[in-house]
Every structure is written in C-alpha cells, then in structure tokens.
C-alpha cells in the first residue's frame, strides 16, 4: 500500500479508501450483511487500507452500524469518515446542513459507529436553504468539542467550496480539508474548474465512484446488455455519461490494460491516482477479488504513452472560461516561460483549440 496526506492536514491515509455503500440491506447497492461486511473490512485492512468512508444515509444507518461492528477493537488504528446532510426520515428537520441536523446527525453516527469521535465529518452536499455561516459554525463547534477531528464537504460547486473556505478563514473557524467528489475517466468535469480551486486551497479530493458506477470495470460491451449481477445490470446508470463516448474510453483503457497485463479497472484507478490534488480514491466491492484487483492500482505505474492515450480518448473538451484563462495565463503571458522554462521545453503546455475558420 502507498499513503498520502489527507488534504490540508498531517493525517496519513491509504491511497485507496474503503467505500461502504454496499454494506447494509436497506438500499439496492450491494445488500451485504454483517458477516460479509466483517470479511470485506478485514480483508481491506489486511491490504494496508487504513481509511474507511461511510455516510449516515447509506442503508439508512445500517452501513455505519455494520462498519462499527466490523472495526471493533481496531478503531484507534483507522481513519474513519462519515457524512450528514441527506434526509434520514420523513421529518423535514432531519435533513440539511442546519445546526439542528448536524448536531443530531453526529450523535447518531457516533452511536452507530460505536466510537466517541470521527476522524473526518463531511457535508454530503450544499444546502441552499440554510445560511452558510450557520453551517460552518456548527462544523467548527464539532471540532472544538472533540467529536470531530477534521471536516470536509462533498458535491459542492467550486464557487460554493471557495466561498465556504473564505468564510471559515474570515471568521477564524476550522476549515474544510477535503472535498469528496465524483471523478472518473468518463466523468472529467471536475477538471474544468473545481480541481484548480482545490489545488489553490490545498483541499484533498476524495474520489467517489471512480469506476463510473462499475462501467470502467471493463465488463460492458457495445450492443450487449449489462451482465446479470453487475451494478449496471441491477441499477442502470449510477452516474450520467454518453455511452458511445464511454465505449471509446473503454477501448483505450483496454489497450493500456493489455500492455500491462492488468484489468481495465486497475488502469482506470491508476489514472486517477496520477491526477492533481487527489488524497484518496474510494473503492468498493462485493467480493474480495474485486477489492484485491482495485488495491493493485496503487502499484501500477502508467507510462507517459499510457497517460497520453487515456487523456486523449477521454478528453471532454475545454469549456469557457477555462480555455480563455489558460490561453491568457499560459500561452500569451511571457512570464511563465521565464519562471518555469521546464514546462515549455516541448512547446506550450496549452494548445489553443479555438476554431478561427468561418462557416459560409
């Protein structure tokens, strides 16, 4: 196993974290029972994984409960993360990033996980119905009370993350150290804006659904139905992407996988580990062999050719204003060429993709 810092903190976590959405039987996302949870958690720890990520909403609390049972006697050796924000009942006050819900949510999670503190507590999403100051002050209080060591967020827009961090800094509050976000070879939208924001603020990105809901496992082929027993076969699209584009990415990933004699899944995960600002990639599985294969991604060294082929096949294009920012800051400003000549050894690191032709 290899390890990295957890965002802007001194905590060290495994490059791959164990995801837990498949634990519990109140969601159709794996339906694993306590015995199966114990086996997979034990196997993950044996592989050197020291980071476990869950959420209160996973199987409506069952996942946390099962994880708490599985790590009994090992809690102090692990970095345990969970989340709050999503509805836990029909009571409308059991939802949102309010002080009321955050304080109640953390107590419930601590009880289910059978611990008196959380290493990382994350907001599962932005709350447009609650004042941001209320949210960040409540999260800061949890750290000061010793119930939470570090805080993070998930599924924020870049302006939301930047605004929250700026408010925390202005008020002298404990600030977010991580951002749990979707990112994959067929879902590179994070790169258009969020990733550079994370780098600027030293946020560690925790990647969820790195295999795009299982699509990048390599089990799927054009024109054929999803195999029975797979996530796509049972639940369909977990994350949105254009299927034809996705199959093109799979073709490129298969070529790279064949060169290394490994799975497409391992290649897809290794590509993510090569990207900027990544603290950990969250992996999950219903079988030990799937976890073992995914863990192998930390030791897969992709070549420059591999990365170039994967980047080109999965390139989603460059949206505005990113292309203008890069054009002005990288291509047209002469100062970077003097300050960072190594970046320009093979020409400009930015290619102008604007079409100067005229139609008609």
Explain what this protein looks like in three dimensions:
- The protein is α/β, with parallel strands linked by helices and 360 residues long.
- It folds into 2 domains: 3-314, NADP-dependent oxidoreductase domain (TIM Barrel, Alpha-Beta Barrel); 319-360, no CATH class.
- It contains 13 helices and 10 strands.
- An 8-stranded parallel β-barrel has the order 3-4-5-6-7-8-9-10, surrounded by 5 helices. A two-stranded antiparallel ribbon has the order 1-2.
- Helix 2 crosses helix 3 and helix 5 runs parallel beside helix 6 (194-200).
- 42% of the residues are buried.
Strand percent estimate: 5-15%
**Helix-strand topology string:** EEEHEHEHEHEHEHEHHHEHHHH
Largest sheet: 8 strands, parallel, barrel
Which residues sit in consecutive blocks of at least 5 with pLDDT less than 50? Answer: 356-360
Total number of strands: 10
How is this fold's topology laid out?
Layout: E1 3-5, E2 12-14, E3 16-19, H1 34-46, E4 51-53, H2 62-70, E5 79-84, H3 99-113, E6 118-123, H4 132-144, E7 148-154, H5 158-171, E8 178-182, H6 194-200, E9 204-208, H7 231-235, H8 243-260, H9 264-273, E10 278-283, H10 288-295, H11 304-314, H12 322-332, H13 335-339
Helix pairs in contact: 1-2, 2-3, 3-4, 5-6, 8-9, 8-11
Quick overview:
The chain is α/β, with parallel strands linked by helices and 360 residues long. Helices cover 39% and strands 13% of the residues.
């Amino acid at each position: 196993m290899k390890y990295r810092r957890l965002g802007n903190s001194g905590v060290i976590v495994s490059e791959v974290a164990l995801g837990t959405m498949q634990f519990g039987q109140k969601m159709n996302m794996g339906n694993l029972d306590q015995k199966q949870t114990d086996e997979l958690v034990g196997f993950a720890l044996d592989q050197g994984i020291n980071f476990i990520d869950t959420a209160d909403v996973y199987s409506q609390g069952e996942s946390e409960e099962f994880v708490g049972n599985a790590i009994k006697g090992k809690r102090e050796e692990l970095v345990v993360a969970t989340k709050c924000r999503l509805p836990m009942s029909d009571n409308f006050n059991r939802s949102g990033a309010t002080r009321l819900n955050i304080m109640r949510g953390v107590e419930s999670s601590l009880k289910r996980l059978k611990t008196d503190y959380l290493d990382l507590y994350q907001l599962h999403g932005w709350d447009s119905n609650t004042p941001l100051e209320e949210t960040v002050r409540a999260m800061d209080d949890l750290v000061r009370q010793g119930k939470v060591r570090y805080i993070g967020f998930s599924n924020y827009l870049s302006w939301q993350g930047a605004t929250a961090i700026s408010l925390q800094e202005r008020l002298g509050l404990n600030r977010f150290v991580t951002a749990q976000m979707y990112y994959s070879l067929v879902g590179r939208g994070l790169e258009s804006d969020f990733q550079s924001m994370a780098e600027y603020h030293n946020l560690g990105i925790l990647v969820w659904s790195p295999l795009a809901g299982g699509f990048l496992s390599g089990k799927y082929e054009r024109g054929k139905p999803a195999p029975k027993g797979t996530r796509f076969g049972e639940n369909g699209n977990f994350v949105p992407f254009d299927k034809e584009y996705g199959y093109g990415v799979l073709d490129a990933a298969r070529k790279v996988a064949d060169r290394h004699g490994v799975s497409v899944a391992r290649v897809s995960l290794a590509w993510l580990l090569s990207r900027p600002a990544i603290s950990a990639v969250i992996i999950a599985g219903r079988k030990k062999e799937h976890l073992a294969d995914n863990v192998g991604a930390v030791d897969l060294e992709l070549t420059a050719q591999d990365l170039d082929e994967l980047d080109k096949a999965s390139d989603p294009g460059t949206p505005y204003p990113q292309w203008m920012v890069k054009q002005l800051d990288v291509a047209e400003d002469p100062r970077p060429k003097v300050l960072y000549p190594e970046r320009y050894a093979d020409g400009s690191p930015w290619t102008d993709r604007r079409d100067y032709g005229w139609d008609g």
